[in-house]
Amino acid sequence: VRLEVLMRLVLAILVLSLFAGCLRAPTIPPLGIVSAVGAPLSTEFSGSTPVAQKTGSSSSHNVLGLAAFGDSSVSAAARNGNLKTISFVDYDYLNILGIYQLFTVNAYGE
């Protein structure tokens, strides 16, 4: 009986791990009591990447891990900055005690 319970538990963990990729952000922010970090989402820079003239941002919020809202997509950032082309993208992440989290995508371009 114990072996059967153990096998079911292992099977459940394996099945749930298949869905873990859907729950991950494109970046893994550092953990801490208060975290405020920024980093690039675009990593393929060339010597010809132009300095952007315009910027657009979009944000999503999370409160207590119970309510999440907002649109932090690159397309929303481009729309908010009235960008026609995007040169590169970065993000800002703020976490306060796990109570409030803010994820902002910044798009740079023309």
What characteristic shape results from the CA principal axes? Answer: elongated
Secondary-structure element pattern, one letter each:
HEEEHEE
* Rg over CA atoms: 19 Å
Strand order of the largest sheet: 1-4-5-2-3
Strand content: 35-45%
* Sheet of most strands: 5 strands, antiparallel
- Outline the low-pLDDT stretches: none
Q: Could you tell me how far the N terminus lies from the C terminus, measured between alpha carbons in angstroms?
A: 65 Å
| Number of helical regions | 2
Tell me the structural class.
alpha+beta
Secondary structure: helix percent: 10-25%
Task: Provide structural commentary.
This protein has helices at residues 2-18, 74-80, and strands spanning 34-40, 54-63, 67-70, 86-96, 100-109. The chain has 110 residues and is of the alpha+beta class. The chain has a 5-stranded antiparallel sheet. The radius of gyration is 19 Å and the shape is elongated. The termini are far apart.
